[in-house]
From TrEMBL:
Chain residues that bind Zn(2+): 461, 463, 536
Gene3D superfamilies for the chain: 1.10.720.60, Class II aldolase/adducin N-terminal domain, HAD superfamily/HAD-like
Lineage, broadest ranks: Eukaryota, Viridiplantae, Streptophyta, Embryophyta, Tracheophyta
Catalytic residues (positions): 486 (proton donor/acceptor)
SMART domains reported in the protein's UniProt record: Aldolase_II
Binding-site positions, substrate 2: 787
Pathway connected to this protein: Amino-acid biosynthesis; L-methionine biosynthesis via salvage pathway; L-methionine from S-methyl-5-thio-alpha-D-ribose 1-phosphate: step 2/6; Amino-acid biosynthesis; L-methionine biosynthesis via salvage pathway; L-methionine from S-methyl-5-thio-alpha-D-ribose 1-phosphate: step 3/6; Amino-acid biosynthesis; L-methionine biosynthesis via salvage pathway; L-methionine from S-methyl-5-thio-alpha-D-ribose 1-phosphate: step 4/6
Region described as Enolase-phosphatase E1: 615-854
Stretch list, region Methylthioribulose-1-phosphate dehydratase: 1-571
Organism: Theobroma cacao (Cacao)
Protein name per its UniProtKB record: Probable bifunctional methylthioribulose-1-phosphate dehydratase/enolase-phosphatase E1
Residues annotated to bind substrate 1: 443
Catalytic activity: 5-methylsulfanyl-2,3-dioxopentyl phosphate + H2O = 1,2-dihydroxy-5-(methylsulfanyl)pent-1-en-3-one + phosphate; 5-(methylsulfanyl)-D-ribulose 1-phosphate = 5-methylsulfanyl-2,3-dioxopentyl phosphate + H2O
Co-factor requirement: Zn(2+)
Length: 854
């Protein structure tokens, strides 16, 4: 603690600034600031609080470079005042400067260092005063508490009358479960100490007054930088997270944007993930926040006419007008001379540049798609969200094309504009005979479902002939499947070696009746961006109109290719597109036929049944020797993790990997996992961050952890090894021959491994027998779930499209994985290879020593 009682004491200090205007009431304050600045090389955050007479004025947090502006801001303060200045250094050390000025002379100054304060073990209550708003009062209390080593929370509040703030360690832990012999007991002691600290803010004559009810604490100061309250996002930050998430931004990108707005933010990616999860669950919808955004609210109201054509009355200055919406009259009557402000403003936005440009774009695409045969005979439709960065995606307006019009003559004025929840805000003008009254597309309910479930940016409903015919080739199929076609790469989330699966739903007499089956298909196939309607057409969507248009072109190309391959007698659904095989009387493999009688039994070889057309293989101990993984891959990742992080630290890919690792390590620390060490924040320097990350990764590798964050990073490291020819994958000699045999028989082979999909493809592309990927239909990693959990195999069955689990054969080397797969209903064989682990006696599974036995 350092204390001065006269201005002379200050002038005698080693740091003298004679150019300061000493008669200025703020001069002592500025001199004290330079004293602190000289003793602390880096000032990270400064917060000020002035009290003159009975008026209290807190100022916003500022950087040191802006401090000189406060000489002008507070120049009109009374000569008698007190000031409290909070300094936060880059090392998160707090210093508190308190000074009193009487008649422009400094009579008392006190500089308090947080370290000294902690030694005294005395935590002070916030200074009393008056504030202009409840938020200012709470900010003052929280900022001051942070400097003293405690945190506060709101205990009771009536928003417009009072607020009671208490220490976050107040209260006692309530054991909600009764003691019992088999009851789980709490492992850790509660943080609550029943601390009596309490301050109260009351509103009186539009001014909030802070009083201290009990300023004492019954616990020691604590490190507040790790407290959850410090990582809590403001309402505005939650809105930013929600909007950027809807725009497809990753948590690391969102966190970077938040730190640009608030350099003092201590939250990390894990906190962003938590907020995103709450938003998805609906527990943090932000609707209460939106009510504070009046400028956005005017765009989010519900206009009077709904898609169902219900009657509604709206006050307007125009004469009575009747509009036809979906064939049902909707009346707009004149009841009041004034229009509601929010409705008037929303109507103005409907005529804005963003909406006008989107309407023109829809008209242009209608004309283009007509030339492709997708919107012939007034059929088909297009819808696009109005992109506006100032409005959250799920509140943006929607433009839809009308129904029953000549698509090649479509113009911007002929479009419908809808709100985000499906209410019509703008209709096309009425035209004279022979034109029919305007009518919004019958696809509107289906479009709205796609927007709701898939958060799409645009949707196209095509009546293209190829989309119709491809569903007729096998009238019993529930899916369209195709693989090893270059245009598959144009579909979101797919590559050349992946199998594209598009669900097929049955047609109905009326378009709107498809809504339920379309909804079920989207939920059953969460990764799909298209749904075929048998004998009808296809619905295609994407994140934007560009993505939707690109995917629509690729889908139609693939449908057309499948039809032509079928005409040539070739199977489009197999990797080599070989001759069609007659399976249970049905040509091709696109359908899921019922399970037929067994044609073989478990003899010397396992015979695959006609309906059992899928194999699922693990890698370690089944395809590759266990020693290749343990003696080559793991040591390579262990030895190169630091080098990899140092070389790629600033890339987006590595930053994403680091975010995943931080989340996993934080979880490990909370669970007390051995080898887990804390990761320092980014501002301490990447060398320290890399060192701590490498220590955690090496510990994970040593214990063979099966976590996604580790496997993803290992995949990046191994990719470098394969690309530089430092690594060559070793597979058993029977693997190439078995894969080729199954491939020629039309059997689809998939891989399920702990390593990422990218690593799996690198391994099979760089094997000691050459590139084996041509024999494989798809790859699965732990993003579908743990290999020892039955639900993971349900996810694979759903993705592959196998109706009966027993139609898939799973080959693994691990008993726990075999148990999980059998629990999911799969047929299971255990691979016995040199170096594999022992199996329990009487395990009950068939075993093989070579894949050629299948």
């Amino acid at each position: 603690m350092r204390k001065s009682t006269s201005p002379c004491d200050l002038r005698n200090l080693p740091w003298q600034y004679p150019h300061f205007p000493w008669k200025n009431p703020l001069s002592p304050f500025f001199l004290c600031f330079f004293v602190l600045l000289s003793s602390h090389s880096y000032i990270h955050q400064i917060s000020l609080h002035f009290t003159a007479s009975t008026k209290t004025t807190p100022s916003p947090t500022v950087s040191p470079s802006r401090l000189f502006s406060f000489q002008r801001v507070f120049i009109n303060h009374a000569p008698d005042y007190s000031a409290t200045v909070f300094f936060l250094s880059h090392e998160n050390h707090f210093n508190v400067l308190t000074l009193n000025v009487v008649s422009s002379e400094l009579v008392d100054m006190e500089v308090q260092d947080q370290n000294e304060h902690n030694q005294e073990k005395k935590m002070l209550p916030p200074t009393r005063g008056t504030f202009q708003s409840r938020e200012e009062l709470l900010k003052h209390v929280r900022d001051f508490a942070l400097t003293q080593g405690y945190m506060v929370s709101i205990r009771d509040s009536a928003k417009d009358r009072y607020v009671t703030v208490a220490c976050d360690r107040g209260g006692v832990y309530r054991k909600r479960l009764k003691n019992g012999e088999n009851m789980r007991q709490r492992k850790n002691a509660s943080r609550l100490t029943n601390c009596p600290f309490e301050v109260v803010g009351k509103k009186d004559d539009d001014v909030w007054t802070l009083t201290v009810k009990n300023g004492e604490h019954n616990h020691e100061p604590s490190n507040t930088s790790d407290h959850p309250s410090c990582r809590r996002f403001t309402e505005e930050e939650v809105l930013i997270i929600r909007d950027m998430s809807a725009a497809g931004k990753r948590p690391r990108q969102i966190l970077k944007a938040l730190r640009q707005r608030n350099p003092n933010l201590v939250s990390d990616s894990r906190n962003v993930y938590n907020v995103k999860a709450k938003i998805r669950r609906g527990s943090l919808s932000g609707e209460d926040i939106q009510e504070k955004k009046a400028t956005n609210l005017t765009l989010l109201i519900k206009p009077p006419v709904s898609l169902e054509g219900k009657k509604a009355e709206v006050s307007c200055s125009s004469s009575t007008e009747t509009m036809n919406t979906n064939g049902v009259a909707a009346t707009v009557t004149q009841a009041q001379p004034m229009v509601h402000n929010s409705f008037a403003m929303s109507q103005a936005y409907v005529e804005s540049k963003e909406v006008t440009e989107t309407k023109a774009l829809v008209a242009e695409l209608c004309q283009h798609f007509y030339t492709l045969g997708w919107l012939a005979g007034t059929g088909g439709s297009i819808t696009i969200r109005v992109h506006d960065g100032s409005i959250p995606r799920h509140h943006q307006l929607i433009v839809m094309s009308p129904s029953g019009v000549q698509m090649e003559r479509m113009v911007a004025e002929g479009m419908y504009v809808l709100s985000s929840d499906g209410f019509i805000m703008s209709t096309p003008p009425l035209k004279l005979y022979p034109y029919q009254p305007p009518k919004c597309t019958d696809c509107a309910p289906l479009f709205m479902k796609v927007y709701e479930i898939c958060n799409a940016g645009a949707v196209v409903h095509s009546h293209g002939l190829e989309a119709c015919l491809v569903t007729m080739i096998n009238p019993f199929s529930k899916e369209f499947r195709i693989t090893h076609m270059e245009m598959i790469k144009g579909i979101q989330g797919h590559g050349y070696h992946d199998e594209l699966v598009v669900p097929i739903i049955e047609n109905t007499a009326h378009e709107g009746e498809l809504t339920e089956s379309l909804t079920e298909a989207m939920r059953a196939y969460p990764k799909t961006t298209a749904v075929l309607v048998r004998n009808h057409g296809v619905y295609i969507w994407g994140d934007s109109w560009i993505s939707t248009k690109t995917q629509a072109e690729c889908y139609h190309y693939l449908f057309d290719a499948a039809i032509k391959l079928h005409q040539l007698g070739l199977d489009w659904s197999s990797p080599n597109h070989g001759p069609l095989r007659n399976v249970n009387g049905l040509w091709g493999c696109a359908g899921n036929s019922s399970r037929g009688p067994k044609v073989g039994t478990f003899g010397l070889d396992y015979m695959i049944e006609p309906s059992q057309r899928c194999l699922l293989l693990t890698v370690e101990g089944t395809v590759t020797p266990m020693s290749f993984v343990t003696d080559i891959l793991f040591p390579y990742a262990h030895d190169n993790v630091r080098k990899h992080l140092a070389m790629t630290y600033d890339t987006e890919e590595t930053q994403h990997d680091i975010d995943l690792l931080r989340s996993q390590i934080q979880e490990d620390l909370e669970q007390g996992v051995a080898g887990a060490v804390p990761i320092p924040p980014d501002y301490v320097g990447k060398e320290l961050v890399i060192a701590s990350l490498a220590a955690n990764v090496e510990a994970m590798i040593n214990t063979d952890r099966k976590v996604t964050s580790l496997k993803q990073l290992e995949g990046r490291i191994w990719r470098t090894g394969f690309q530089s020819n430092e690594l060559v994958a070793v597979v058993f000699e029977d693997v190439p021959e078995a894969l080729e045999k199954w491939h020629a028989s039309g059997i689809k082979v998939y891989i399920f491994a702990c390593g990422s999909r990218e690593v799996q493809q690198l391994l099979f592309a760089n094997s000691n027998y050459g590139d084996l990927r041509k024999y494989l239909c798809g790859f699965f990693d732990t993003t579908v779930g743990n290999k020892q959990v039955a639900h993971s195999y349900f996810e694979i069955l759903q993705t592959v499209g196998v109706d009966r689990p027993a139609d898939m054969l799973f080959v693994t080397d691990r008993f726990q994985e075999a148990e999980a797969a059998r629990a999911a209903g799969l047929e299971v064989i255990i691979s016995i290879r040199p170096g594999n682990g022992p199996l329990p006696q009487n395990h009950g599974f068939r075993t093989i020593a070579s894949l050629l036995e299948i």
